[in-house]
Write a structure and sequence with these properties.
Largest sheet: none
Oligomer: single chain
Number of strands: 0
Low-confidence stretches: 185-189, 658-663
Helix content: over 70%
Mean pLDDT: 80
Length: 663
């Protein structure tokens, strides 16, 4: 009965997604529209099959993710243990699903070629498709996706331990990334914001829907396993819901170009439908899943779980179909570029900077919004969790972390971020904030320590919960290497010279994703270095205070030398990029570069001095704690350590042979 019910529900979920896909395409202008006579036309077959192939590729990727989530949601052993039972059967299902995913991605490649070059499928030419796959971004992305799907499918044959399943899951999620880097997101204004928000959106949807599928299909009717998996997935689903909602809203605003187009455009109305579906999913999950967890071992519990999750899956499948259709529907804010500068910046060139504009201007930034929003949500959740347990958390740490996030926001989303894309001097100021000022404040906020205290532990004896997984990661070989003080210092310093004096800076600035990657690298490199110097996380290599002080003093001159080299250079760093902008202000690029070097010198010394003071304060507190510990120990054993030490000194100072004469 249950198997038959699951089969019928599965067909219903698929039908719901396909119906929404077809309706949205028909009503939103994403379906087949014949070209005027005389113009090339890819034909009806391509118009109908391309969204279907995209839908199949996305769905198969989600099913692969769901299959790999099964052992992680039900595991009762440590990471090194072998997967068995239903978990192993789920992992074995990855092979056919992954192979089908690779085929769907290749089919999407051929259909995309047909659509982009307006060539009917009857005119298929392998050489042309091969050239499309090699030279066009969309073709390259689909080839990479097919390759990842194939690797995941083949590697699943040898995935026998939990740690290997986790890496396969990372690979499956990576397979959803390449197509995100092309399409409407890459063509909309504020490129990096559109791409980053869509990327986060797709990954959260994959985990959410894949987790639902794993709960529904793979776990069968074993009550204990079902209860454990449902409880574990409940928290994960709540985070996925929040991430999907926020990232979807940001992405929609970027593509819509304004709230007014929500009701005046087909794309906007489809977005409103998606909002309604998402709201229904959230309401259903919040009101029902908790009750199911409490009574999922009773009579009829499996049937109730199947019905409720099938309803949730139907809504989610409809949302997925709607998303695929939206990717084929022209958004109101297409590519609004009238100049090379606007194309490079993803928007209009800002006016000449002044004090007010530097303080009050705002620009969308994918990296900045991602760090600030996720950082705020995660840190606040951790503090609230500790407070509910009655565990104290320092308000100063909270304030420090909040100031760090504000610094990140100002350097990416605020006025400094606005002009960091336009002027080298503003870029270097933003770089200093991201790599030196913000990381110090974030590290002093101790987010890793907070996570280790707030994350839930294992729910079974000998298992590995989120807290244990984070602890394992901190003590892994990779962590031992990357957090080694010498490695952290080299990443912090060498990347500085490598980016700006190798020509890499120009290439990164000409790409929205390149600039976003550069911002993220600055922040992570700075965080890693300052965690080694003044952090409190339990990293494998924690130097003594004197050694950390020495490391900081060794690194300081390298920043000063870099600033002097920039100030004295006659070669304009990123000159080709800034020439293309043709800005009407700060037209002397060499002078602007000199200002950038001066700001680097000035802003770079202040954080270093601050770090030295923090190190000295930590050293003092550490010695004070050690002295108090020794005093307490002396009170307990009547100062046995001091007595033993005095006796040793007395023996050493006694005349030679005195002991023999006394004897």
């Amino acid at each position: 009965m249950t198997l038959a019910l699951r089969g019928r529900l599965a067909l219903g979920v698929l039908a719901a997604s396909l119906v929404v896909l077809a309706l949205t395409l028909a009503l939103g202008g994403g379906g087949y529209r014949p070209e005027p006579v005389g113009l090339p036309d890819p034909g009806r077959l391509t118009a109908y099959l391309l969204p279907l192939a995209t839908w199949m590729s996305m769905g198969l990727g989600i099913l692969v993710t769901g299959a790999l989530l099964v052992p992680l949601l039900t595991v009762t052993a440590a990471s090194g243990e072998e997967v068995g039972g239903r978990g192993l059967r789920a992992v074995r299902a990855v092979r056919p699903l992954g192979l089908a995913w690779a085929v769907a991605a290749l089919a999407t490649l051929v259909l995309t070629w047909s659509d982009q070059f307006a060539v009917p499928l009857s005119g298929f030419d392998l050489g042309d498709v091969y050239g499309f796959a090699r030279q066009v971004d969309q073709g390259q992305a689909l080839v990479v996706q097919a390759a990842i799907a194939l690797v995941v499918a083949l590697a699943s044959r040898w995935a026998l331990r939990l740690v290997e399943v986790r890496w396969l899951l990372v690979g499956a999620l990576a397979g959803a990334v390449p197509p995100v880097l092309t399409g409407h997101a890459a063509a909309a204004g504020s490129h990096d914001t559109a791409i980053v928000s869509l990327l986060v959106h797709v990954l959260a949807v994959s985990v959410w829907v894949g987790g639902l599928a794993s709960l529904w299909w793979h776990l069968g009717d074993v009550p204990e396993v079902r209860v454990r998996a449902t409880r574990r997935f409940a928290s994960l689903a709540a985070w996925c819901f929040g991430v999907v909602a926020v990232s979807g809203a940001i992405n929609a605003l970027v593509r819509l170009g304004g709230l007014g187009t929500l009701v005046t455009s087909d794309y906007g109305r489809a977005v409103l439908v998606k909002v309604v579906l998402l709201g229904g999913i959230g309401l259903l999950a919040a009101r029902v899943r908790g009750a199911l967890v409490d009574r999922s071992t009773g009579p009829g519990a499996l049937r109730a779980l199947l019905l409720v999750t099938a309803a949730e899956l139907s809504l989610m499948a409809g949302a997925v179909g709607l998303g695929v259709a939206l990717s084929r529907t022209p958004p109101p804010a297409g590519e609004p570029y009238t100049s090379v500068a606007e194309s490079l910046l993803g928007g209009p060139l800002p006016p000449a900077p002044d004090a007010v504009r530097l303080l009050t201007s705002v620009t969308p930034s994918g990296v900045g919004l991602l760090v600030v929003l996720l950082g705020t949500a995660g840190y606040a959740t951790g503090v609230v969790t500790l407070r509910r347990r009655g565990v104290a958390w320092s308000p100063l740490r909270t304030v420090s972390f909040a100031l760090g996030l504000l610094a990140v926001g100002y350097a990416t989303v605020g006025g400094l971020g606005v002009y960091s894309n336009v002027m080298f001097s503003a870029h270097m100021a933003s770089h200093m904030v991201l790599s030196m000022m913000a990381p110090i404040l974030l590290v002093l906020g101790a987010p890793i320590t907070l996570a280790l205290r707030a994350l839930p532990g294992t729910d079974v004896d000998g298992g590995r919960g989120p807290r244990q997984i984070l602890a394992d990661l901190l003590n892994s070989r990779w962590s031992r290497f990357i957090t080694h003080p010498v490695v952290a210092a080299l990443i912090f310093v060498v990347s500085l010279y490598g980016i700006y004096f190798s020509g890499l800076f120009t290439h990164l600035m000409q790409s929205h994703l390149g600039h976003a990657a550069m911002e993220l690298h600055f922040l992570l490199a700075g965080y890693l270095y300052y965690e080694v110097l003044v952090g409190s996380a339990p990293v494998p290599h924690r130097l003594s205070h004197l050694a950390r002080l020495g490391l900081g003093l060794i690194v300081m001159p390298f920043h000063a030398f870099f600033a002097i080299a920039v100030m004295g250079s006659e070669t304009i760093i990123g000159g080709r990029y800034y020439e293309l902008l043709q800005r009407p202000y700060a037209s002397d690029l060499l002078q602007d570069q000199y200002v950038g070097g001066s700001l680097t010198w000035a802003l770079g010394e202040v954080p270093m001095v601050l770090v030295l003071f923090v190190l000295l304060a930590q050293w003092y507190r550490s010695d004070t704690r050690e002295a108090r510990r020794r005093d307490r120990q002396a009170d307990r054993d009547d100062d046995a350590e001091l007595t033993s030490y005095n006796e040793m000194l007395a023996r050493l100072s006694a005349p030679a042979g005195r002991g023999d004469r006394d004897g």
